[in-house]
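User: Could you go from structure to sequence for me? I need the amino acid at each position, not a summary. Structure tokens:
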């Protein structure tokens, strides 16, 4: 079975790509010692389509750095890259990169995961072409029998670790790369599963003619023998770069033969590993690495002029590499297509992911029931104004606080976003638009449940118009909190740290929101009597934190919406001159009633001058 390739990216097995790198050097600034730390020191090599190269070496050898430099994820500081004989500065448009960690959406099935990668890589392709490509990828990786199984989440069992690895690889293979980079694809897998994964990649590389460069730590013999060639690095230097089968003979010639029934890969690693050496043995180990590097350099000087070019290399030199998975769409059309695909995927994920909005819906319902039962059927009296303010305060503050429940889901999405963004599938703009479009319906449902439970049970401003305004303002506050949590998760990818920061920020907003600030027109005696407006927010907090707090705008909108048009009965009566309101009342002064207008409460809070349209726009 073969992957169906479009004309703009077709590279056949008869005309494979040839990728070479010469004298690549990479350094970093060293804090411990003067000068630069050399991570790669003049590394050279090449590979043709249909071949697999294993990049091996102990920790700190430069394996991942070399892979990142060749893949364009780190800058090419020194040296040259060539594709089919022509110099290039980057192969990102020709390649795919499979990272060490499996970044997958656990709620999607195996087929859906690979389908969305195919669609994002080529938005202009017709559905039949993409389906054929997905089916071929599933078949080649041995995933057809689990195609309709979900990946799996912390609360839902899914496919095995080896199958997840193959799905991650399939996400990249379905984009039709000419060069495939894999960073430790067998990490965390048992030997049987590791062999299964590498064997699948080898077969696909031969079938479809793409070159494979793979970092690998300590493969067993069966896995090691799947590679056509091996590059051994130590301290950024090349120790060996040649055929897998020839590695044993080369080190035997240097006086380090592989013991009978031993793995040549283990022998190579033991010769260059210095991690567990102590004292003088460390210096001797470093000297041995330097001698191996010199020996390889001398070996290459001897055979360099005599070694004939491989037939595949000669054939490849006459063709020019063409970029893969570059859709004919550009500009707004491409943005719209990517946004549409991501919106569908996000909506599917959210609708299945209990951690994303399912648990939060339960929390919103629970909070609605709590608020409704604590402040049930509030009488419309001056003495209960503080309670009405508390309802709005908790409605904004605690619903916003609950947005932290979405951080685990956001972090899972972030890992997928970063992987796909680094593989040039899309930019941040379509993701942000898609996330907004997909999340709004779920946030709206959560808000509606809360509003319906609370509004009529508590006895807020009667009427359809005030209710729908209440619903809209609560929704805007919840959406602002959602955006804040998304931003925190994007900046801080560590779950515990993101959760702690989000909790602190939401607590901070609750404090500086200023629900209890005192209006200058309210006398302290009356304030103490009624129990609300008991302190003034200090100017330091008011003039910066208070006015960038989304809860401030939502709270003021809710209060103005609820109080405007209401009349609150005060204690006592006009008849016996015992009427007492929390603040001066025009109704009392004119002898109309022992009551207080809601507008006067809004004015005393300083909310009468706010623009509903402007504040809603700010949220």
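Assistant: Here is the amino acid at each position, in order:
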């Amino acid at each position: 079975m073969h992957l169906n390739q479009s004309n703009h990216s077709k590279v056949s097995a008869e005309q494979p790509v040839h990728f070479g790198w010469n004298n690549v050097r990479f350094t970093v600034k060293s804090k411990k010692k003067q000068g630069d730390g050399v991570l790669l020191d003049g590394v050279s090599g090449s590979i043709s389509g249909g071949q697999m190269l294993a990049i091996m070496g102990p920790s700190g050898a430069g394996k991942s750095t070399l892979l990142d430099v060749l893949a364009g994820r780190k800058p090419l500081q020194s040296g040259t890259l060539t594709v089919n004989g022509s110099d290039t500065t980057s192969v990102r448009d020709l390649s795919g990169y499979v990272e060490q960690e499996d970044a997958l959406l656990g709620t999607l099935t195996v087929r859906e995961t690979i389908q969305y990668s195919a669609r994002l890589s080529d938005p202009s392709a017709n559905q039949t072409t993409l389906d054929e490509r997905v089916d071929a990828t599933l078949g080649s990786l041995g995933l057809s029998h689990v195609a309709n199984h979900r990946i799996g989440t912390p609360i839902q069992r899914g496919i095995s670790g080896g199958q997840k690895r193959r799905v991650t690889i399939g996400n990249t293979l379905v984009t039709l790369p000419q060069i495939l980079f894999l960073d430790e694809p067998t990490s965390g897998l048992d030997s049987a599963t590791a062999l299964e994964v590498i064997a699948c990649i080898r077969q696909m590389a031969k079938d479809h003619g793409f070159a494979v460069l793979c970092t690998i730590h300590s493969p067993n013999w069966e896995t090691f023998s799947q590679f056509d060639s091996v590059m051994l690095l130590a301290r950024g230097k090349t120790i060996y770069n040649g055929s897998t089968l020839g590695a044993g003979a080369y080190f035997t010639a240097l006086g380090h033969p592989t013991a009978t029934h031993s793995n040549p890969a283990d022998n190579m690693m033991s010769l260059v590993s210095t991690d567990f050496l102590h004292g003088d043995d460390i210096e001797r180990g470093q000297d041995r690495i330097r001698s191996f590097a010199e020996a390889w350099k001398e070996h290459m000087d001897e055979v360099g002029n005599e070694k004939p070019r491989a037939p595949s290399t000669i054939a490849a030199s006459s063709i020019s590499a063409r970029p893969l998975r570059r859709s004919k769409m550009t500009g707004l059309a491409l943005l719209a297509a990517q946004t549409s695909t991501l919106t569908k995927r996000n909506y599917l994920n959210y609708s299945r992911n209990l951690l994303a909005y399912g648990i939060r819906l339960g929390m919103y319902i629970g909070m609605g029931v709590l608020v409704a039962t604590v402040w049930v059927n509030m009488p419309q009296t001056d003495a209960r104004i503080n309670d009405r303010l508390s309802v709005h305060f908790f409605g904004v503050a605690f619903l916003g606080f609950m947005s932290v429940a979405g951080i685990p889901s956001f972090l899972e999405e972030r890992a997928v976003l970063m992987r796909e963004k680094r593989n040039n599938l899309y930019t941040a703009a379509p993701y942000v638009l898609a996330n907004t479009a997909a999340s709004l319906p779920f946030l709206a449902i959560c808000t509606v449940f809360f509003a319906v439970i609370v509004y009529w049970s508590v006895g807020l401003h009667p009427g359809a118009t005030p209710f729908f305004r209440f619903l809209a303002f609560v929704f805007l506050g919840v959406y602002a909190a959602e955006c804040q949590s998304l931003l925190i998760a994007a900046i801080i990818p560590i779950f515990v740290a993101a959760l702690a920061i989000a909790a602190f920020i939401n607590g901070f907003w609750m404090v500086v929101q200023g629900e209890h600030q005192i209006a200058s027109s309210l006398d302290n005696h009356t304030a103490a009597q009624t129990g609300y407006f008991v302190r003034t927010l200090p100017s330091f907090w008011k003039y910066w934190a208070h006015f960038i707090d989304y809860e401030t705008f939502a709270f003021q909108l809710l209060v103005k919406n609820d109080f405007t048009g209401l009349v609150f009965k005060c204690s006592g009566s006009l008849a016996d001159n015992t009427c007492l309101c929390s603040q001066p009342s025009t109704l009392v002064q004119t002898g109309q009633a022992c009551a207080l207008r809601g507008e006067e409460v809004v004015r005393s809070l300083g909310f009468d001058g706010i623009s509903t349209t402007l504040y809603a726009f700010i949220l």
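One structural detail worth keeping in mind: Residues 401 and 505 are 9 Å apart (CA to CA).
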